[in-house]
Amino acid sequence: MQASIDRSNALTCGHRACQSCGEALGARYAIDAAMRTTGGQLIAVNATGCLEVFTTPYPETSWQIARLHSLFGNAAAVATGVAAAMRIKGRPEVRVVAQGGDGGTTDIGFGCLSGMFERNDDVLYICYDNEGYMNTGVQRSSATPPAARTATTPALGPEPGNVFGTGKSVPKIAVAHGIPYVATASVCDLHDLERKVIKAMGVRGARYIHINVPCPLGWGSASHDTIRLARLAVETGLFPVFEAEHGLVTGSRKIRRKVPVSDYLKPQKRFAHLFSSEEGARRIARLQAIADRNVIEFHLLDDGGDA
Ligand SMILES: Cc1ncc(C[n+]2csc(CCOP(=O)(O)OP(=O)(O)O)c2C)c(N)n1
Ligand code: SF4
Ligand SMILES: [Mg+2]
What we know:
Layout: H1 22-38, E1 42-46, H2 50-55, E2 66-69, H3 75-88, E3 95-101, H4 102-107, H5 110-118, E4 124-129, H6 170-176, E5 181-186, H7 190-201, E6 207-212, H8 216-219, H9 226-236, E7 242-245, E8 248-252, H10 261-265, H11 278-297
Parallel strand pairs: 1-2, 1-3, 3-4, 4-6, 5-6
Antiparallel strand pairs: 5-7, 7-8
Helix pairs in contact: 1-7, 3-5
Bound molecules: thiamine diphosphate, iron/sulfur cluster and magnesium ion (MG).
Thiamine diphosphate binds at residues 23, 48-51, 72-73, 100-104, 130, 132-136, 141.
């Protein structure tokens, strides 16, 4: 597949992402799959964020698709406008994808996104979730996990790292809008990611895919660990991989061998403070409880896991 000359290669070489950037990998596979499904009749709208910055340092671009850079917070609204323009021009075969990071999606762009969902606009929105505002220096977003150290949640004081009990699950909020298709995916399973993009492009109306994309710079992890960490996020239960249609969860990717969350946390410097005190151990136990809850909520061990 990689070597095939027929490969669409929407995001080509020459971009400036960090080595082993999960976002670059996820975007390339997602947009390539959308390109193949639409026969190249695709327009992408991109919120501000690492993906936009590392692919388009003016006057260069690594994209080989029609693409618009929106503002940080309005990619969903701009994509809605592009889809409406294509409809009015009598070009319904031209499909629209909007993409943004977790900050652009779960925080600043959330109102526009919810509007796009409730109007059931004909757009696939893809969120590349690296759990922080990485482009501007690793600040906390509402997708940052509890206890994680970021530039704005230092590992100091009575509640070191990001505060427990904060944040939100946009995939679950998307499901609650009752839109035709919602899925989560990971760069540790690119076939599953491609399958979900292809499925989403086969549907009209509002669709949402939320992809977990490790960020070596923001997470303080080794570049060779990007895929291992993505897999551990899934195999611990911390990042549940599931699909939903019209408001109902229809399936989830089963955990083959459940892994303790400490195996996932330890290789990341953003969680290093958890491994040096009894208080840190209590916080690891609270993160384990979150993973265990996800396992129950999304039936991650049904049909043959061995916890
Ligand atoms: C209105 C506005 N506020 C702030 C910024 C600065 N800004 C640009 S990208 C970014 C962070 C992006 O984070 P995220 O959406 O998670 O994408 P990532 O870089 O992590 O992929 C910020 C704060 C901006 N461009 N516009
Ligand atoms: S900071 Fe993170 S998301 Fe941004 S290019 Fe580097 S690895 Fe990728
Ligand atoms: Mg981010």
